[in-house]
Structure formats: structure tokens, C-alpha cells
Amino acid sequence: MAMIQSFPNIWLLSDERNDAVLEETLARLPRGSGFIYRHYHLPGAERVARYSSLARLARTRSHVVVLADSALTATEWGADGIYGSPLSLYPRRDLLMLAAAHDMCEIAQANRIGADAVLLSPAFPTRSHPGATSLGPLRFRMLAQYARMPVIALGGMDPARARRLDWPHWAAIDGLS
Length: 177
What we know:
alpha/beta, TIM Barrel, eight-stranded parallel β-sheet, 6 helices
């Protein structure tokens, strides 16, 4: 695992929907939170520039900065880690590896590659995937018990749902913005 002081409990994911309020949101997050930069909607040069600006701000708050991209790009951009499907990740000790998972198969893949954490979703109904079946607290916990690493609840999460789920690690797009 990449060297980080402590594993963040709260993670913010960037998205086209929350782009306008990311600076304010990053400044409001508790020190040492996590930030996963996605911004797939931006063309190359704009995506790099936006990342640089947000990463600088995140680091002033001691946030862990993870890039949804390749390990090579994450290293070039100075990210602390990478985020993606377990099949897109490969073992790296110099970068934090966060795997996306939606089912038992993807949790098994994350276990196999030795991911540092897995984002399990959707815990609750979410705007990102309208109409998709959510896991709910019971199924979320059932799947999470098979992960050999910290599990981050994602999907419809906000502070109230984090308390309801009573889970130590959670992430949001809209729920933190």
C-alpha cells in the first residue's frame, strides 16, 4: 500500500454533477479524508488541469488523492492511488489500489489482486444509476464480510445513511457536495 498516514473514513468522488462545488466540498471535508478524481467528461488537457488544481487543494487538507485512471497516469500526475474495476488494476505497492465492486465476483477479484480497499455499491438507491437495484444494509453487510480489505460503502450515501448503515468507511458524490 502507498504510504498514507491513516486510511480515510470519508471519501468524495468527483463527477460532472458536483464539479462546480468541489473546491468548497474539499475544504469542508474532515482533514485526512479521501478524494477520488474521475472527471471522465473532460478532454485530456482540461482533465489534467482540473486534477492539478483540485489535488493541490486536497493536499492542503491532508486528503488522500486517488485517480480513476491507469497506474502510469496516476504516477505521472502524482496521485496517491488508483481506482477502477478489479480487472483494470494490477498489484502495485507504490500506489493505493481501490477497486470498484458490485457483487461477489468483483469482491473475489479485488481479494485476488490484493486491493487496499473496495468500494461496494450501490448501498442505497442513487442518482448515478437511477432504477438500479441497491444492495440495502443487509445484503451490503453480507457481501462486505467476504472482502479481505476495508470496504467503502458507495451509492446513495450521505451522513444520515452512513449512520444508518453504521459502517466506518463511506463515499459519496452528491451526498457530500
